[in-house]
């Protein structure tokens, strides 16, 4: 008996052999081997032969899945030069229904209808169609939100949703807008205008913020799983623009507070040619563009890049050519009698004062003397006038990523009637330019004759060329300073900083007899920083309307953001 208590490991080799060949032990081994073969067979049956059965268990164990609604767009932001989103995205509450968490659908529809004043049949129909979470496109009032939160109905949640264009969204005409339905249908995550459209393929992408819950593989609620938010905007690419949100805001405020209803303003940085602000009036609602479709004054138009008759802001262009090519001498004196007759046409100039009398060339520009400029223009071959405008960036699109941009109109190269040349020399007739083109040209005056294509988005190359000599540039700078010191542009003087520039009043045809008003110039006088172009469509005259608005914008920029 004592031997029987010894373990297998304590048996001697002889004893072991004797034990292995014991017939009872052999039966035990045979039984265990058979059981093992049966086990292997069952494994093969379930794993290979009856694989769907196997998968069912795998699913239940591992495929808990997320059911969610997007709470933002899978889309990058449009940033200002300091990385601030120009569209000021914000959040608002939306109602989301989670069908997996609803027990009795009829009861659910009744409860919701009582809470938010919506037909319970609509809720019932929606629940019949949908098995995944969906948003109710009804903005609940504060009162309704309190009741919804207080009632805590399973399957109904108030979740935050990002509004891409917040209340203070800036530079709306530059940014453009995304289709309003994009929050409900990802296929509508498409930019319809402005940078949103131009950079569609860059901006779209990433993982949006989501609001959701986890359910079993079969879509049933997992007890205890709540509704949660997932972090968003992963892997989205933002677009860095040159716009400065503070300056853009100041310009938009100045335009909004002015008496004009239609117009535009552009601010360029003198040193770099970067666009710091580009604003257009009237504004429109980016979240609901459909509301602005039939409003008067076409709010969708980006007037800063559309073309209009320039009036006298065109005179500096004629003068730079005349000086460069020697069609006029810097010390020349002109005699203005208040009227010029060209062919059968009579053009007036300062008629109420009987003309400007004897004026120097600088005074002719500072006083915006039509007589002197018609005389100068008629000395220049017409094809040279048109060629020069093309070289200076007019009559063609500037290289900026906005499809809405106009080319502007220039006369066909070739012979022109004297009357047409006279009109062209003072910015009238068959001639239109955009406020952005005007700002670029005036920037070349303050930059020693060096023209640079404006930049709107960082990383896009800037084309540069020398238009005219430094001597011509300095002559123009002095004449345009004379304009704001004691000439026709006095209302544009920025107190404490000074300014220089040119007024323009362009006659218009058609629905209204009011003229286009312009002022283009720079500020401050010492170490100029900003070129500003102000355009007021069919609103009045340059000296009375656009010049004071230029001053206001200059004050905002230099006093608030020196
Ligand atoms: Zn005159």
Chart the SSEs and their pairings.
Elements: H1 13-20, H2 23-49, H3 51-62, E1 65-70, E2 78-79, E3 90-97, H4 105-116, H5 120-129, E4 134-136, H6 142-151, E5 156-163, H7 172-175, H8 194-198, H9 200-203, E6 210-215, E7 228-230, E8 239-240, H10 245-257, E9 263-269, E10 275-281, H11 315-324, E11 333-336, E12 339-342, E13 345-348, E14 357-360, H12 361-366, H13 370-379, H14 382-391, H15 418-425, H16 435-446, E15 450-452, E16 464-466, H17 470-486, E17 500-506, E18 516-523, E19 530-536, H18 542-560
Parallel strand pairs: 2-8
Antiparallel strand pairs: 1-6, 3-4, 3-5, 6-7, 9-10, 9-19, 11-14, 12-13, 15-16, 17-18, 18-19
Helix pairs in contact: 4-5, 10-18, 13-15
The chain binds zinc ion.
Low-confidence stretches: 1-22, 38-61
* Number of beta-strand segments: 19
Mean pLDDT figure: 87
Please describe the biggest sheet, giving its number of strands, its sense, and whether it closes into a barrel. Answer: 5 strands, antiparallel
Shape: elongated
Please state the CA-atom Rg, rounded to the nearest Å: 38 Å
Distinct compounds present: zinc ion
Q: Helicity range of the residues? A: 25-40%
| Relative strand content | 15-25%
What structural category do the secondary elements indicate? alpha+beta
Helix tally?
18
Strand order of the largest sheet: 10-9-19-18-17
End-to-end C-alpha gap: 107 Å
Any overview of this molecule?
- Mean pLDDT is 87; it is low at 1-22 and 38-61.
- The chain has 18 helices and 19 strands.
- The longest helix has 27 residues, at 23-49.
- 35% of the residues lie in helices and 17% in strands.
- By secondary structure, it is an alpha+beta fold.
- Strands 10-9-19-18-17 form a five-stranded antiparallel β-sheet, sandwiched between helices. Strands 1-6-7 form a three-stranded antiparallel β-sheet, with no helix packed on it.
- Helix 4 (105-116) packs across helix 5 (120-129).
- It is elongated and about 95 Å long.
- The chain binds zinc ion.
